[in-house]
Amino acid sequence: MGIETANGEHVLATATGTHAGDGGLVVVTDRRIVFVPDEGTGRPDEELPLAGDELVEWQGDYLTGQVTIRSPVSEVGPVTFKGMPRRDGINLAEAARTAIRELRVGVDADPAAGSTGPL
User: Fold this and answer.
1) Residues 55-71: what's their mean pLDDT?
2) Model pTM?
3) What's the domain of life for this entry (predicted)?
């Protein structure tokens, strides 16, 4: 996608899906994954900052599927986004893996850099 946000993040992929029963948009940037619920749910955006140690898994059939993100440091356990169109979900999972790999390379190159932390 290559869209740059106002704070310098780059949007890598988006997909529609559900999280905790609400529909919305899942956005992967080079720093985090954000779930933006559909209007009218009254629910705030949720974000998962990427630290470089997450595992991303796609599971699906011919039409739809889900992306699950697992982090060894997460206090809430795995985060799952369901009901994604197959192509969008696969692209989103790969974009998340790419962002995580890039964070690992940055941390490995500069051990003092550490995690990006919450934004």
Assistant:
1) 95
2) 0.81
3) Bacteria
